């Protein structure tokens, strides 16, 4: 049989995907319809867990925070990543040094990043203290202590860590553009910024899709930053779905509620992946 060795070698991977991923996912969804507490059980309660979930203020706040964090992170990370990549693509001096500096935050864990930005945004010795010591005594900059702004303080840390990776993705896409295209636009007298907007960016559609999927996958499971910076506070102002799931399953010992919340997160992932899969494969097939 053709490629028999390759097919045999792929069996462990297929088995792992079916049993661990698909099997555990189905097990989680099933038990989200039960009243499981400390241990899983088969006491079916229908959609009670989901009704209770969407009647909980903490979950509503979590979803709202995720929406704000997600939209802002998608837009700002892509813009910053593309701008940095475009600047590096101009063949500047010490490009390797700048690329390493911009990418360095991505090498840090989210816990480390969260703690660093917790210190930076601390009003007692962070940015606010520095500005006040320079003469701006009335300046207030304490987003992590303001319930209306705390999610934006977490957003700053997330963008700082993730923009470097998006820059690398964008830079790889820019380096794949044929140099003759740039020469043609210069001959036609097209300004650089118009070339980027009307020529280069449309050609980089697959790169942008990949970047958006990378960002979205990190957004949905954001947890470490919140835990390190605020632990969900002040109050419940910075709660996110991943933290809600963890707290329900391990602290409140309410597996059914945690499974319901994690299933809703799975639905969110599907909402991201299905359009991406269509754009990546469906569009090519139609072409």
TrEMBL record:
- Residues in domain ABC transmembrane type-1? 63-276
Per the record, what is one GO cellular component? Answer: plasma membrane
Q: InterPro entries from the entry?
A: ABC_transporter_permease (IPR051393), MetI-like (IPR000515), MetI-like_sf (IPR035906)
Q: Which UniProt keywords apply?
A: Cell membrane, Membrane, Transmembrane, Transmembrane helix, Transport
Q: Which GO terms describe its biological process?
A: transmembrane transport
Quote the CDD domains the UniProt record gives. Answer: TM_PBP2
Predominantly, its location class is membrane
**The UniProt record lists the keyword Cell membrane:** yes
Q: Which domain of life is it from?
A: Bacteria
Which membrane topology term applies here? Multi-pass membrane protein
User: Which Pfam families is this protein grouped with?
Assistant: BPD_transp_1
Subcellular locations according to the entry: Cell membrane
**Transmembrane feature ranges:** 12-30, 66-88, 100-120, 149-174, 195-220, 259-279
**Record bears the keyword DNA-binding:** no
| Stored SUPFAM superfamilies | MetI-like (SSF161098)
Q: Which family does it belong to?
A: Belongs to the binding-protein-dependent transport system permease family.
What is the recorded name of this protein? Sugar ABC transporter permease
């Amino acid at each position: 049989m053709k490629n028999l060795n390759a097919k045999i070698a792929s069996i462990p991977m297929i088995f792992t995907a079916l049993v661990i991923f698909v099997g555990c996912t189905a097990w989680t969804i099933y038990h989200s319809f039960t009243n499981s507490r400390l241990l899983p059980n088969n006491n079916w309660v229908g959609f009670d867990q989901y009704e209770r979930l969407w009647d909980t203020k903490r979950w509503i706040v979590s979803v709202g925070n995720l929406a704000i964090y997600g939209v802002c992170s998608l837009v700002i990370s892509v813009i910053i990543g593309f701008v940095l990549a475009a600047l590096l693509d101009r063949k500047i001096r010490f490009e390797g040094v700048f690329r390493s500096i911009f990418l360095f935050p991505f090498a840090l864990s989210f816990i480390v990043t969260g703690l660093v930005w917790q210190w930076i945004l601390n009003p007692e010795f962070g940015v606010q203290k520095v500005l006040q010591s320079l003469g701006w005594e009335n300046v207030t900059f304490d987003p992590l202590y303001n319930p209306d702004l705390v999610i934006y303080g977490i957003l700053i840390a997330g963008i700082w860590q993730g923009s470097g990776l998006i820059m690398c993705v964008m830079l790889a896409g820019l380096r794949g553009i044929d140099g003759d295209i740039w020469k043609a636009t210069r001959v036609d007298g097209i300004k650089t910024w118009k070339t980027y907007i009307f020529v280069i960016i449309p050609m980089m559609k697959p790169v942008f899709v990949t970047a958006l999927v990378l960002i979205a996958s990190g957004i949905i499971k954001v947890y470490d930053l919140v835990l390190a910076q605020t632990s969900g506070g002040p109050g419940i102002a910075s709660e996110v779905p991943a933290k809600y799931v963890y707290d329900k399953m391990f602290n409140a010992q309410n597996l059914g509620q945690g499974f319901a919340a994690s299933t809703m997160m799975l639905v969110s992932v599907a909402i991201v992946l299905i359009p991406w899969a269509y754009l990546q494969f469906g569009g090519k097939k139609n072409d």
